[in-house]
Amino acid sequence: MIKVGVVGALGKMGKEVVKAVLNEKELELVMAVDIVGEGSDIGLAAIGKSCNILIDTNIEKSIETKKPDVIVDFTQPKDIYEHVNLYMEKHVKSVIGTTGLKEEEIKKLEELSKINNTSCLIAPNFSTGAVLLMMFAKQASKYFNNAEIIELHHNQKKDAPSGTAIKTAQLMAEENPNFTLGNCSETELIEGARGAKSEANIHIHSVRMPGYIASQEVIFGSSGQLFTIRHDTMDRSCYMAGVILAIKHVYNNNDFVYGLDNIM
After folding, report:
1. pTM of the entire predicted model
2. Contact assessment for residue 49 and residue 24, using Cβ atoms and an 8 Å cutoff
3. Which of 48, 89, 189, 222 has its CA 20 to 30 A from that of 69?
C-alpha cells in the first residue's frame, strides 16, 4: 500500500486527487494539507462523507506525523519551488502538478533529486489526451515549417502561457529549429498581438475565459494545407489516471521526470 499525502487538498484539483486516491485500492490517503480548513475532514469536501483524514495547514509538521511515501502537490506557482525543496529535504517522493516553475528552478530540483536519491515527477499536464497531443505535435513538426499554439484556460489560472504549451513548444523545437519559415517582417500595432514567441519562433497565444477548463490547439501550416491538433478538457477527472500513474512511478523509482510522456 502506497501512503499518499495531498497538498492543496481543498483546491479543485486537490479534491479530485483526494477522491482518486480514496478510490484506488493500491493507495492509502494519510495526509491532507491546505492553507484553510484546519481540522476539518477532507472526505466531506471531496466525496461528501468522512474519511477520517483531517486537514493540516503545516506541511512540514504533517510530513513528520503522517509519514507519506508520496506527496501530490497542486498548489500555487509562487510556493511550489519551496515545497519541492522541503520534500527533497525530508526524502519524500513527490508528484507535482503545479505549473509556473522556471527552467532554472526545474534544473535545480533535478540536481536535488539526484543528491537526495528521492524521486520527483513534474508534469505540466496529467491528461493522457493532452500528453498524446504533445507527442503528436512533436511528430508532425518533422513535416511542417510553420506552427502556432493557442491555449485556452479558465480565468482563475495565474500563469501564462500554460506549462502544457511551453512543454509542447519545447518538444516541437527538438524536431525543427524555426516555425516561421517564409513569414514576412512583422510590426505589432498593439504589443502582444502576435502572442509570446517561444522556442523555435513558435508563437503561443493564451486565452483566459470563464467556461473553459483547459484546451490547447496546435496549428501547422504549409502551402495549400492546414493541420490542426486539439485537445479539450471537459472535467478535471480526466487528469486522475495520469496522477495515479505518476504516484506509482515515483514510488517504485528514484529518478527525476519532467513530463508524463516520459513514463507513458
Report:
1. 0.82
2. no
3. 48
